[in-house]
Amino acid sequence: MAARRSTKKPNVSKEDLMSYYREMLLIRRFEEKAGQLYGMGLIGGFCHLYIGQEAVVVGLEAAAEDGDKRVTSYRDHGHMLACGMDPKGVMAELTGREGGYSKGKGGSMHMFSKEKHFYGGHGIVGAQVPIGAGLAFSDKYRGNDRVTFAYFGDGAANQGQVYETYNMAELWMLPVVFVIENNQYAMGTSVARSTKSPSLWERGAAYGIPGEEVDGMDVLAVKAAGEKAVAHCRAGKGPYILEVKTYRYRGHSMSDPAKYRTREEVQKVREQRDAIEHVREMLLSGNHASEDELKAIDKEIKAVVNEAAEFSRESPEPALSELWTDIYAEA
Ligand SMILES: Cc1ncc(C[n+]2csc(CCOP(=O)(O)OP(=O)(O)O)c2C)c(N)n1
Ligand SMILES: [Mg+2]
């Protein structure tokens, strides 16, 4: 990944930087804890961690407004936390407990929050993309100026349904930002092995959809690109594509032996490109925060995550009668 991180003094307030730092740290610590709980056998089924990609959702949520919608894949815990869902409810869903967002019946990949306009959590690669266009269609139909963020991966970007969706979205000028989280891998397959054209966002040109590539390890760059994309959608100009170059530090899921890349490759990104470290450096070098203040934030976030973990262990398992509820929508 080329070093494209902005070096000029950022035009951002201390408060904003502090909140990005806090939000990214919450996702990272939450995911580390989820990894631990999984290791202890408290989380069953699939669990895909978002560690390394935090700046993507935090930057884009900073560009979003109340009422905007989001939908994503199974690597979804970061998206939920970034849009303000309660860490307790998310963690309790991971452990399959009553206090979880889907009452413990959905697990890591199947959580929703109508209140926060988070529409999942989808296990079928690429399936959330047409759903995202549908959400945007509903807003356009209602005549409001809401925008939908439809997140998907570099692997999903090779799915046919993505291009069917591009066509319809541009045809109907839908207010949807297609966010390609290019973390370089689809399970164990690198982009170079799966994809002929290296630039995924440029494929939108075939449908008349503009877009751009963004440094996904730089939260300020993501926010700026997000604002541009959202303005395009709100102005009634149709969809926009952001290909956000990022990196996942952990395996595809908890059961990934990670034989397809070297430890050195991961270590290099962590050392040279880490998004949280980047904001931390900006806070310290700009004299916005002292080491002690940042340590205090770290402590505070750890407490929030520990509380969520405790809740996720104490919340009871769903009653057997729950097997028969939430199957059909009530008319
Ligand atoms: C239709 C479909 N095909 C295959 C799979 C198996 N599968 C799950 S995740 C994945 C890789 C997707 O990679 P990417 O889109 O880059 O997302 P990332 O995991 O990197 O976030 C595959 C092939 C699936 N879940 N659904
Ligand atoms: Mg990927």
UniProtKB/TrEMBL annotation:
InterPro entries: DH_E1 (IPR001017), PDH_E1_Alpha_Subunit (IPR050642), Pyrv_DH_E1_asu_subgrp-y (IPR017597), THDP-binding (IPR029061)
A GO biological-process term: pyruvate decarboxylation to acetyl-CoA
Keyword check for Coiled coil: yes
Coiled-coil region(s): 287-314
Pfam families: E1_dh
Superkingdom of origin: Bacteria
Domain Dehydrogenase E1 component, residue spans: 23-319
EC category name: oxidoreductase
Gene that this sequence comes from: pdhA1
Cofactor(s) required for function per UniProt: thiamine diphosphate
Name of protein: Pyruvate dehydrogenase E1 component subunit alpha
Keywords: Coiled coil, Oxidoreductase, Pyruvate, Thiamine pyrophosphate
EC annotation from Swiss-Prot or TrEMBL: 1.2.4.1
Catalytic reaction equation(s): N(6)-[(R)-lipoyl]-L-lysyl-[protein] + pyruvate + H(+) = N(6)-[(R)-S(8)-acetyldihydrolipoyl]-L-lysyl-[protein] + CO2
Keyword Coiled coil: yes
Subunit structure: Heterodimer of an alpha and a beta chain.
Chain's role: The pyruvate dehydrogenase complex catalyzes the overall conversion of pyruvate to acetyl-CoA and CO(2). It contains multiple copies of three enzymatic components: pyruvate dehydrogenase (E1), dihydrolipoamide acetyltransferase (E2) and lipoamide dehydrogenase (E3).
GO MF annotation list: pyruvate dehydrogenase (acetyl-transferring) activity
